[in-house]
Amino acid sequence: MAAAGSEPGSDADELGELECQVTEMAVKIQEYRATVPEQLKNALTSIIEAQRPVLADGSEPGTSGDPNSGQITSDKDVLGDQMFQKINLLRDKISRNVAALPIVLKRLKECMSNIDKLDSQNTFIHPAFKRKRTS
């Protein structure tokens, strides 16, 4: 009988201990939510800054459009031919991606309309291929 009397007390102790653990976890989660985004931002910023090429002091901020030819020759001397070629290649890739963006958007809209047409039909579609509705 003594064992039966100690059961409710131990259950209450376990319950209290679990509640303490839950509150500790909640505090830790709250701290992580407050600190992790800032840490990720700082890490990303430092990585981007480390990968940024060092330009000459004479470089001016502005758009990355077609620079004038005088600036190209001065940058070429400072950066070296290989780095200059890499920068030009990157600029070309970016401009091609921007030029292809309307085509990609058109295809995306077509695919979305096809999906909507399939949703309006009363055919069986496997759940793995259905979109999740967010509201």
UniProtKB/TrEMBL annotation:
Q: Which domain of life is it from?
A: Eukaryota
Instruction: Kindly give the PANTHER family that the UniProt entry links to this protein.
Output: OS04G0558500 PROTEIN (PTHR36045:SF2)
- Identify the stretch(es) annotated as Disordered: 52-77
Query: Which spans does this entry mark as compositional bias, Polar residues?
Result: 61-73
Protein name per UniProt: Uncharacterized protein
